[in-house]
Each structure stands twice: as C-alpha cells, then as structure tokens.
Write a structure and sequence with these properties.
The protein is α+β, with helices and mostly antiparallel strands and 387 residues long.
C-alpha cells in the first residue's frame, strides 16, 4: 500500500509541471491579452500614485460644472465654447482664456466626431483665425482632445483626451511648449489619483491662491460629476508603497475618501481658508481708469491707488508692455494672413520675421506676467506692514 501511494504521489509530481506547461502554452485571445495589458498598466500607475492633499469635493450638475471652478482673474478663466463665442455649434467644446484676455485655447469637434485643439489671439477686440496646436493634434492616439488649460508660464499646458493610452474615457495629460521647435512636446499622462477608468478632465491650477481643481464622473450618476479641490504640490511625490497595504494604496489612487489624504491639518485649513475667499470673491465693476486686483480685499482703479514704492512706475511700464504686446499680435496676425496666400519666395522672406516676432511675443508675455506678480507682491507686502 505504501509503495502504491508513493507511486501515485511521484506520478502526480512529475505530471503537474507538464499540465502547467500545457496550460501556459494556450495563447490568450486578443481581448484577454488587451485586458491583461490594461491591468498591468493600472498596477504600474497605481504604484506611482502621486501624494496629493484633497481639501474639498463637491458633486454638481454635469451641465454646469464650470461654476465650481473659482479661479482668480490673475490666472485666466475657463468657459464653454458656446458661451464664450456666443453660438450653439459646439456643445461639448471648452475654452481657456489667459489673464490678459489676449489669447485663448479651445477645442472644436470635427466632422468625423473627433475633437482638436486650437489657439487664437485677440486683435483689436476680435479673435484671429484659429490655428491648430502643433505637437498634440497630429498624434493619432488621441481621438477627442478637450478641456485646455495653460499655466502662467505660458509653456505648461494641460488637456484631457480620449485616447488609446487612456485608463478609460477621458484622461488628463500635460505637455510643454517648445519655443525653438514651435510646437508642444509629447504629452504625458499625469497618472493617479487624477486619472481613473472613468472620465477625468479640466485640470486647472490657480497659482495665485495655490489651489487646483479637476472634474471626474467616477462613482457618479450619468448627469453628475465630482469636482475635487486640491493643493498643487511644488514637487511630485509618490506614496511609500512599502508602508501601505494594497487596499490602502488602491483607496488613495481612486480617492475613496479625501480625509485619507489629510496628512497636514494646518496646511489643509489654510487652503480651505483660501478656497472660502476665492468662492466669496465677487466680480469687480468700476468706473475708474482700469481694474487691477491686488488681493481679495483691494482692487485698484487709478494710478494714485498704488502705495508701494515704485509701483506707480511699474504699472505704467506694465501698460506700455501690454500695448506693445497687442501691437505685436496685430502685426503677427497680418503677417500670417499674408503668408497663407503668398508665393514660395515671399514665404521664404516672411518666415524668419514671423519666427522672430513669435519669440518676441513669448518673451513679452512672460515679462508682463512677471511684472504683474511683482507689482501685486510689493503692494501686498506694503499693505501687510501698514494696515
């Protein structure tokens, strides 16, 4: 009996590897292979989940979700295409307008139901002919590109897209504008916790209030979205996976509870205070010479309002730069229009001038943005010390 049992166990031991090999040799169906690759991708992204403090979340009507974005005027604004351009032709498209109101980025749906991103400049209160954003629209992996947002540096650009690279639905991507190549670099998926197997979109950062927003329909009914408010990190930090269980990491990656991200209560409370102020800000109407917002409590409308040393001169310099910027945009618009109908010889002559003007435009934009920040910071410092 013992010998028989020993024989049975030995036979089983020798046979199991053969059975396993046969099982391994069975090829996966295309759908199984796709699902396996998807799960592997989710696992890799989950392991690199970014450490973010989410301070608030609110479920809103999907049709009016933009109302939950309380951005400072200093960082521009977001709008639906139809509201911004006063039309009803593009119900799903969205627009970002910079703080100067001089440039906008927007999506438009094409005849084949794809969506692409465009930019346009404000010339004498009229928007110039739109041009496609180079470096993004040409990539065939993106099918519907929407929800643009440009950071204050004029280079860092966020958008959302349905793509072959997405976890599911819309994912949020980031890219940067290459001034030398005159196009955007290859976009990168910003990963978890911002992206999921649901639709995630309109990532926007308010550098003035150090707050960020994004929208998602994960775990929501069809007519609703959840808007998360977070503190934008100065550097990218991920969780220590060795100190977390798989369940804890999964909950952080999909934002099961925002309370799980409250690692610093003082930082969270300060951010909540900034959010409260941002939500309470009312549109400014004035009959003064201009409108310059210093902070939540001070808006200047005349040159005499500036009190910090040198700020009157700085503001005059700012208006000079803004005028120069508008004139340059006007010149560029005419040059581009002429270039479109010119012959090859004329294009060869125009090209270096247009490129030089575009570099100058970018430099002026950064100068204006930096000068505005300097004026505002000096004024706040003065008010803090003297009031």
């Amino acid at each position: 009996m013992k010998i028989r049992m020993l024989f049975i166990w030995t036979l089983a031991f020798l046979t199991l590897p053969l059975i396993a090999q046969k099982r391994k040799a069975v090829p996966l169906t295309p759908e199984q292979l796709k699902q396996q690759q998807r799960q592997e991708k989710i696992a890799r992204m989950m392991a690199k989940t970014q450490r973010i403090i989410f301070i608030d979340s609110i479920v809103v009507d999907k049709q009016h979700f933009l109302q939950a974005y309380h951005l400072s005027p200093e960082v521009g604004r977001v709008a639906s295409y139809n509201d911004f351009f006063h039309t009803n032709r593009q119900p799903d498209a969205h627009v970002y307008v910079n703080e100067l109101g001089s440039r906008c980025y927007y999506s438009m749906e094409q005849a084949d139901s794809t969506m692409q991103l465009y930019a346009s400049d404000n010339i004498n209160n009229r928007w110039s002919r739109p041009h496609l954003l180079s470096g993004i629209n040409e990539d065939s992996i993106y099918h519907r590109i929407n929800y643009p947002f440009m950071m204050g540096d004029g280079e860092t650009f966020y958008f959302a897209a349905e793509s072959n690279d997405a976890l599911g639905g819309y994912d949020i991507y980031v890219t940067r504008y290459d001034e030398e190549e005159k196009q955007f670099l290859h976009p990168a998926n910003i990963g978890m916790p911002f992206n999921s197997e649901a639709n995630d979109y309109l990532y926007a950062i308010d550098e003035y209030n150090n707050l960020g927003w994004f929208a998602t329909d994960r775990r929501q009914p069809a007519d609703s979205v959840c808007i998360y408010v977070f503190i934008p990190p100065q550097t990218r930090q991920t969780y220590d996976t060795d100190s977390l269980t798989a369940s804890q990491l999964a909950n952080l990656a999909c934002i099961s509870r925002i309370a799980d991200t409250w690692s610093d209560e003082d930082t969270r409370q300060a951010a909540l205070s900034r959010l409260k102020n941002a939500m309470g800000r009312k549109p400014v109407s004035t009959d003064g010479d201009f409108c310059f917002i210093v902070d939540d409590h001070h808006t200047y409308t005349r040159l005499s309002d500036f009190q910090a040393a040198g700020n009157k001169q700085r503001y005059q310099q700012l208006t000079t730069l803004q005028d120069r910027y508008q004139r340059l945009l006007d010149t560029l618009d005419r040059a581009r229009d002429h270039y479109a109908t010119a012959n090859q010889e004329e294009r060869d002559e125009l090209r270096p001038d247009i490129l030089a003007s575009e570099r100058m435009q970018h430099d002026l934009y950064l100068q204006i943005h930096q000068l505005e920040k300097t004026i505002r910071n000096n004024e706040i410092l003065f008010l803090t010390k003297n009031i």
